[in-house]
Design goal:
Layout lengths: L6 E3 L10 E2 L7 E3 H10 L4 E8 L6 E6 L2 E2 L8 E4 L13 E5 L13 E4 L7 E2 L1 H9 L13
Parallel strand pairs: 1-4, 6-9
Antiparallel strand pairs: 2-3, 3-5, 4-5, 7-8, 9-10
Helix pairs in contact: 1-2
Length: 148
């Protein structure tokens, strides 16, 4: 993705700024320290885009996962698909909901940051990325296991 200038992100909630937020839009916005760790540990998996966060003097960036991988383990996850009776013919057979997400790690290869194909609302990070972000005490980041 190529953009000129900085994105502008409004603040919708008052309080302490977070190191990781999805800005109310499922778009990761990260503090520069978080972005630095991610670009050092997974340089081919992420793109960062400068962003101005309203009222914040610190540098923030939009985090883009550059990989989308077909990896959802449908037998281990709770998957709901769109059906013809839902009235959206273009969506039939696609994921309507994925709860208790599990991935097939044999499909992931060397990816450290990615989104699962068909359910791009989830942002998946490897164990070493998780541990690095926890070591930085990254506020706002929540982790759930997606492997058995």
């Amino acid at each position: 993705m190529h953009l000129e200038g900085h994105l502008r992100i409004p603040i919708e909630r008052v309080g302490r700024p977070l190191d990781y937020s999805e800005a109310g839009l499922m778009v990761p916005v990260v503090h520069v320290k978080t972005a630095t760790a991610l670009t050092e540990l997974a340089p081919s998996d992420v793109q960062i885009i400068p962003a101005d966060v309203e009222g914040q003097p610190d540098q923030y960036l939009v985090l883009v996962a550059t990989r989308v991988i077909r990896c959802i383990d449908e037998s281990a996850s709770k998957v709901q698909l769109w059906k013809p009776e839902d009235g959206l013919p273009d969506m039939v057979g696609k994921y309507y909901a994925v709860d208790d997400l599990h991935i097939d790690t044999t499909q992931v290869g060397n990816a450290k940051v990615f989104r699962p194909e068909g359910w791009e609302v989830a942002l998946i990070v490897s164990q070493d990325i998780k541990e690095a972000l926890e070591a930085l005490i990254t506020t706002g980041a929540n982790f759930e296991a997606v492997t058995s």
